Amino acid sequence: MDRFMWTNGLLEMNETLVIQQRGVRLYDGDDKAKLDVGVVLLSTHRLIWRDQKNHECCICIPLSQIIFFEEQAAGIGKSAKIVVHLHPAPANKEPGPYQHSKFSYIKLSFKEHGQIEFYRRLTEEMTQRRWENTPVSQPITPAGLKAGRTRAVGIVGIERKLEEKRKETDKNISEAFEDLSKLMEKAKEMVELSRSIANKIKDKQGDITEDETIRFKSYLLSMGIANPVTRETHGSGTHYHMQLAKQLGDMLQAPLEERGGMMALTEVYCLVNRARGMELLSPEDMVNACKLFESLKLPLRLRVFDSGVMVVQLQSHSEEEMIASAIDNVSDKGSLTAEEFAKLLGLSVLLAKERLLLAEKMGHLCRDDSVEGLRFYPNLF
Amino acid sequence: MSFEWPWQYNFPPFFTLQPNVDTRQKQLAAWCSLALSYCRHRKLYTMDVLEAQESPMFNNKKIERKLSVEAIQVVFEELRKKGNLEWMDKNKTRCLIMWRRPEEWGKLIYQWVSKNGMVNSVFTLYELSNGEDTESEEFHGLEEWMLLRALQALQAEGKAEIITMDDGKGVKFF
Description:
- Chain A is 44% helix and 21% strand.
- Chain A is built from twelve helices and 15 strands.
- By secondary structure, chain B is α+β, with helices and mostly antiparallel strands.
- In chain B, a hairpin with a 2-residue loop joins strand 7 and strand 8 (168-173).
- Chain A: GO terms for molecular function: phosphatidylinositol-3-phosphate binding; ubiquitin binding.
């Protein structure tokens, strides 16, 4: 019983009431305490007992002082009890009703029942240990009143709370953006790293075998473009598009050769953006870059067919050859539709049709537009 | 005597108006000559576009191709430019077809007249187109409007004069 200390019975700022039960008598160990029947209150931080008649008589123990507790079933003429075992009182304990006690446990005797619910809530509080997360503010002393936090009362209090909330949001936002800028910095570092590796490879060309260089480069490539040209690195407008055009020129050479020297612009767009990974290109930027192929003397050309279909083709990819192959194929078969021609060459139907139309435009083929579809014939006229 | 179709008639693209300018020109030239020789063969003087589309001239049943109405109008327009055709209405649905132009007919008639030494004599139009003397000539059986056109062409050259007579028209050659 000597662990108890006097209290005014008010809850502290962060403290909340969990449950209260009337008709509880306290036992100092096995002996009835010299106190009357009272109300026992369980808060998130403390176990409080208050005399039912004399409200001034109010005592408490912090929950942190409880070691464990157990139920004691009711018997004949005996109320159900909860036995609470306690740590010894700290030296600087506030005064309480008992100075000394030979017992290190107390009992709560429930005259008016409610012990089952109380026991359950106590168990909950003891496992949650909420007092640890939100320590109660220091007992209010005259000094504490001046220096301590101001209580939020009235409109001023509400305003103050709003202000606090705003500040917190501000902080959260700026923290979030800080993360983003950090990410950007890291990305820049990664780009730097890959560039330096690329440079090193260039320098060590002699030391490393050709094979290894190629292999390493292919690794870099498979990860994407090591150093994509972006608006950030190359500004805006023509300069950006020029650099972009150069990069496209480098990376499209191989795929174009694989595909017979010509790719539809949409296909190019997909391929390029897949290689770039994060720094995606807009269709507009790509078209603008492609338009610069010729003025930059790159071996690629953007070609716009009469139908409006745009393709990127190798400069070496000669039109005459294309037309000749179309004529040969059509003459061989007598007549061809774009679909049949596409199948023959392994091209997309769109490109096959463009070739046929081109040959027609040059006067080598003529068309038969019937219900069966558009067929191309050698021009016999 | 059956009509001899040109080779293009069995070539499917012939029935699609070609977008290529050069090709189209050749195609139209072939159509024009086909249309004129067909009309001459069948002695056709007027044509209706819709009817023409169903006639064998523009409809090859064997290869299941026929020229569209628009294309037929293009062909006819081409013929008009060459002086072989005249529209009879604004909507261009009917036309007069002249497989010989009036001047050509006039020339033929005048040749016949001078060959037979009948310059300075007067003929009725009926005599010219249906008379016994002209039976072996090409202009025999020529429709009157066509004959009149031919003579008007000659008159413009000063080689003939059309005279109005009691029961019709006559002509005097110079």
